[in-house]
Amino acid sequence: MELSKITRLVSQFINDSDFNKVPEIGINRIYDQPLIAVASANDKLFAQLKNPDIIDKNHKNPKEWLEDAESIISYFLPFSAEIRQANKGDGLPAIEWLYGRIEGEECNKKLREFIVEEISRQGGKAVAPALSLDFKVKHNKSNWSERHVAFIAGLGTFGLSKSLITEKGCAGRYGSVITNIELQTTIRQYEDLYDYCIMCGACISRCPVKAIHEKGKDDKVCQQFIDEEIYTKYAPRYGCGKCQTALPCEDVNPNK
C-alpha cells in the first residue's frame, strides 16, 4: 500500500464524512485538508520519549504496540477558518472551538478506525494506540503522545505553548496509526525542537490564566482552568485553544 493512496483516502474521508461537521451550531467543516507524514518504527527518537525530561518511562515504543511494526502514519488535522476565527476573541473559549475539540476528536477517532480498516483490507496489520484499551493518560502524560510522534514523523516542531507548529500552523488535532507495512519515511526539515517557533511570545498574552511563560508552559495551571472553569460550565465539552488562535503560527509556519 502506497502512502499516496493513504493520503488520497484520508483526504476523501475528511471531505465526505458527516463527522467533519456540526450542523446544529452551523459548523460546515471542522477540519481542512490534513497533513500526513511517516516515521520509521525504528527511529531512535522513540526511545528518547521514555526520558522523564521528555515524557516518561511509560511511553511505549511502536513495537510495544505492534510487535512487527515498520511504519507510523502521523497526521495533522487543521481546524477550519470558521472554528479558528470564532476563537480569536479574548475571554473564555468560543463554543465553536469546544465543539471542534470534542466533536472534532470523534471525527479523528473515526479517521483512525478508517485507516486501520483500509490497511487491514490491503492485507496489512495496523493499530491506533489512542483507540486501544492500553492507552493511558496520567498526570497529563500519555503512553503515546500524538504530538511527539508527529515531531518524529516530520510534521512540525514545538512552540512555547507546547503546541506543535506545522506548515499549516498549530490550531488543530493530531492522530496516528502504526502498521507493519513499510512505507517511505518523511524527511524532517528541522533539527531543533523549536525550529518553527519564532519566540514572539504572542501565546503568552493569549493564555487566560497565564500558564505560558518564556520558558514554556505550566500544564497543571492549564488543566485546572479547563477542569474547573470550562468543563464545569460546558460539560461534556471542554478545551480552550486561545494559545493556538490569533497568533502568527495559527495556520502557517511563521518561520517560512
Automatic annotation (TrEMBL):
What InterPro entries does this protein map onto? 4Fe4S_Fe-S-bd, 4Fe4S_Fe_S_CS
Q: What GO molecular function annotations does the UniProt record carry, in alphabetical order?
A: iron-sulfur cluster binding; metal ion binding
**What superkingdom heads the lineage?**
Bacteria
Q: Which UniProt keywords apply?
A: Iron, Iron-sulfur, Metal-binding
Provide an example Pfam family for this protein: Fer4
Q: Where is the 4Fe-4S ferredoxin-type domain?
A: 187-217
Q: What is this protein called?
A: 4Fe-4S binding domain-containing protein
Q: Which organism is it from?
A: Anaerovirgula multivorans
